[in-house]
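Subject: C-type cytochrome biogenesis protein CcmI structure
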Amino acid sequence: MNTWFWIIAGAMLVLALVILIRPLLSKQALRSQDGTQRNLRIARQQLAELQQQHLDGVLSQDQFDAQYLELQQNLHDNLDDDNSAPHAGGSGRWIIGLIVVLLPLLSIALYLQLGDADAIAKAEMQAENERSLAQVREMIPQIIERLKQNPNDLQGWLMLGRSYMYLEQYTEAAGVYAKLYQFQPDNLEVMLDYANSLAMSRNGELNGLTGELIFKALQLAPDNHNALWLAGMAKAQSGEGGQAIVYWQKLAGLLPPDSSNLPQVQQMIAEVTAQMAAESASASAAPITNNIHVNVAIAAEYKARAQSGQTLFIYAQAVSGPKMPLAIVRKQVGDLPLTVDLNDSLAMQPGLHLADFPKLKIVARISQSGDAISRAGDFIGSVELGQLLADQTVNININQEVK
């Protein structure tokens, strides 16, 4: 049975017993009211402190649950002590005895016939979550008002950002962390929280500014668990499974053997390893007949304006024909200068091959937004090929801006 249910049921039974027995007790029982009220006030104050520590990140979810359970048990014990009645005489003792024995037995028997402890526990948990959400919503205007009076309050901004994240208002959270990042551009905690809020507001995409923040954080703290996890995810998204595995294997080595996060890291390593093996087998099954070696560099002017974490697309497309790339590779600005191969194994659409078109355009483009679609402000370089040879090399210098 659910532990929470029995705690709640026990508290309810104690309360019911107090209500039923109280009229049978002497007037001396009234003296316990002051103690009961005092214990309730203390319990409410301690609960508020626990919830605040949980919101501030001082307590994990497991720590909060354990301390909340302990607080509830202490309150139960204190209320039981405060409401203990003096000895009653004569028939009063018999009546009290019958109530104390029969009421719990009848209640438990009725529950075993009709009740659902799990459903009750879930309902209680849902109600508690709703109360917590309501409390966080009430706190936000107070935090905002405090920040108006003291805009340099780092902890206040962090609390506001995490409050928005708790409410799953990711766009608002990203806006808060953007301001924080202006104040604290080298603060590791700010960088990772900002990256996480951006990723959540963009459906998990880790390119562009998000990737830049992740790898900047990793450079500052190479053993940071969160940075290693996110760096692996970013590399996996960009098709660099081998580098993703390197980050995750390092993370797995840093985690304690009993860590609840270790199985998830190991699962991701296994999945990416299997995916890479499948891709390698597929590439081996289809021999490459046309291969273009692309050497990519960037002009100094544009290198100074680009960010190392920005996405770099290198692709081949038909000069006359579909605008969709025939083959594409995704890298990052920090990888420049580099050499990649474009061939039919990287085809975007089955059935379309590089040799199907008499003229090809080879493009290297730095995306400001992280999108595959070219936009104004992107940095670009390109060359045209008239005749596709079985194996050839082209050189591209990124030296223009898309207007």
